[in-house]
Amino acid sequence: MSDAAGATTETAASFVAKAFSSRSFVVGFAITSLIALMAIVSFFWVPYDVTVLPVADRMKPPSATHLLGTDHFGRDILSMIMVGSRNSIAVALVAVGIGMGLGVPLGCWAAARGGWVDEVLMRFNDLVFAFPALLSAIMITAIFGPGAINAIIAIGIFNVPVFARVARAGALALWPREFILAARAAGKGPALITLEHILPNIATALLVQGTIQFALGVLAEAGLSYVGLGAQPPMPSWGRMLFDAQTRMMVAPYLAIFPGMAIVATVLGLNLLGDGLSDVLDPKLRRQR
Amino acid sequence: MTAYLLKRLLIGAATMVVASLVVFSVLEILPGDPAQLMLGMNATPDALEALREQMGLNQPLLFRYLDWVGGLLTLDLGRSYTYSVPVLDLVTERLVVSLPLAIIALVLSTAIAIPVGIFAAARRGRAGDAVSMGAAQLGVAIPNFWFALLLIYVFAVWLRLVPAGGFPGWGAGAWPALKALVLPAVALALPQAAILARVTRSALIEVLGEDYIRTARAKGMPRRRVLWRHALRNAMIPVLTILGLQFAFLLAGTIIIENVFYLPGLGRLVFQAITQRDLIVVESVVMLLVAAVIVVNFLVDLSYALVDPRLRIRA
Question: Which residues pair with A70 in a beta bridge?
Fold first, then answer.
C-alpha cells in the first residue's frame, strides 16, 4: 500500500516537473487558472452589481471608475465579463460531461463487443456528425425555446460521438495487448477489464480531448448566445454582450472588444493546455506537433 | 473500388433516411401539436382545426412522414405558413446567397491554409514555423462572429470600403454582390484556415518521417521535390477529411455570420422561421443542410480513392 502511494507521489512529481517544462502547458495553465479564478471571484465580489441598471452611467468609455467601460444599461463591462464567465464555463463543462458520460461507455462497449454493436455505433457517429451543433441547437430551440439548458444539451449531444470515437480508438488498440490477454486468462469479464485496464490507459487521451471540447464548447456557447439561442438576459453572457455591442459599435467600439477578448483568451488557454497536456502525457504525439 | 464506393453510398443513403426520421420526429412528434405551436396559445379552436387540416396533421403519422419524404424527393417542400409561398422558392432564393458564401469561404480558407501548412512543415522548428503556428493557434481561438464584428468596424465603419451588411442581390451586377460577400467570407474562412493549416502541417510532418521519403532523399532527390512530389500527396488524406468535416462547420457558421451581416441566406431564413414558428420551413432547411453535409462527406470518401490508388485496388 505504502509502495503504491510512494509511486503515485513520484509520478505526480515527475508529471509536474515535465508539465512545467512544456511552454504550451505553462501558458495554457496560467490563462485557464486566471479565467477560472475570475469566475470563482465573481461569486463573492464584482466591481459593480450587474443586476441593477444605473442608466445614468450608460455607455461610459473605459476609465478609472469603470475599467472596461459601461454598456447601454450602465452596467460595468468588467463585472459583466466576470459574471458571464460562469455561464461560459458551466455550459461548456456540463456539455463535456454529457459527451464523456455517454460517449466513453459507448466507445468502450463498441471496442469490447465489436461486430454489430461497433457498426451501429459508427453509423450513429456519422449521423450525429451530419448535424452540426448549431443546427441541433436550432432544432432544440425551435421546440423548447432558447436558454442555457438547451444550449448545453445541443453542445453535449455533439460531444458524444467525439468522445465515443476517441474511447473506441484507444480501447481497440489496447484489446489485443498481452496484459489484456492475461487479464482475460485470469477470468475477468469485458466490463471489469474495461474498468480496470482500458479506462486508466485511455484516460490521458480523454483528458486531452476534454480540454479541446471544452474550448469548442465555449466557442459554441458564445455563438449560440450571440444569436439569442443561449443564456437569456438578464443573465450576462459573452456572446450576448457582443450582440448588444454590434448596433452600438459606431459610438462605442470598446463594447465589442473586451467580451471578444475574454472568449479568445479562454479558448486559447484551453487549447494550449490541451496541447501541453498531450505533449507531457503522450510523448508519441509529441513528434507530430 | 466499386464495392468501396457502393458501401459508402449505401451508408450515406441510410444516414440520410435516419436523419430524416430524426428531423421529422423531433419537429413533428415531440412538441405536441405543431398547429398550436405555430399559432400560439391564444389561437381559436377553429383556426387550429383549419391549420391542422391544411398541414395534413389529421392524417396518420406514417402517412405524414412518407408524404414529407416524398415531397422532399420530388422537391415539393410544401408551403411556408408565414410567407405563403412554396418553401422551395424560399430556399432557392436564399441559396444563391448562402452557397456562394460557403464556396468563397472554403476556397479562401484552403488557399490560405495549405500554403501556410506546407511552409510551416518545411521549416519545422524554425522561426517561420513558430510564427505561423502561433498565428494558427490564435486563429482557432477567435470566434468567427467576433472577427466579423472587428472586420465590420475596420473595413466598413472606419475605411468605408465595403458595406457593413445587407445584400444588393445578384440582379444589380456581380461586383456589388461580391463586395457584400467579401467580409462574411473572410470572417468564415479565417478560423477554418487556422485549423486546416495545423492539420496540413502535422500530416505533412508525419509523412516526412516515412522511410520512402528518406529513400527519395538518399537517392539524391532535392528536398523541395520530395516535399511536393511525394510528401504532399500522401499527406492529403487527413487534410481532405478535415476539409469535409469543415463543410459542416462552415454551414453552421453561415447561420451565425448571415445574422451578423444581415445577409438574406438560408441561415437567416431558418432563424426567422423559428421565431415565426414556421416549422415547415425549419424542417426543410435543416434537412437540406444535413443532406449537404452527408453528400459532401460522400464526396470526400470518393476523393480518398482518387488520392490513394491503394483504395482503388483493395476494395
Answer: A76
pLDDT in tens, B284-296: 888 888 888 888 8
In order of B24, B69, B75, the CA distances from B284 in angstroms are: 10, 10, 10
Give the total number of structural domains in chain A: 1
Identify the domain containing residue A38 by its residue range: 13-48+79-288
Write the single-letter amino acid at B97: V
B145 contact residues in A (CB cutoff 8 A): 222-223, 226, 239, 242
Kindly report, residue by residue over B22-56, the tens digit of the pLDDT. Answer: 888 877 665 556 677 666 667 778 877 877 777 77
Domain ranges of chain B: 94-314
CATH number for the domain spanning A184: value is 1.10.3720.10
Q: Spell out which residues of chain A touch residue B241, defining contact as CB-CB under 8 Å.
A: none
Least Cα separation, residue B107 to chain A (angstroms): 20
The class that CATH gives domain B94-314 is: mainly alpha
Enter the ipTM. 0.85
A53 belongs to a structural domain: no
Residues A93, A214: contact at Cβ < 8 Å?
A: yes
Cα nearest neighbour of A140 on chain B: B26
CB–CB contact B153 A249 (8 Å):
yes
Whether the bond into B31 is cis, omega within 30 of 0: no
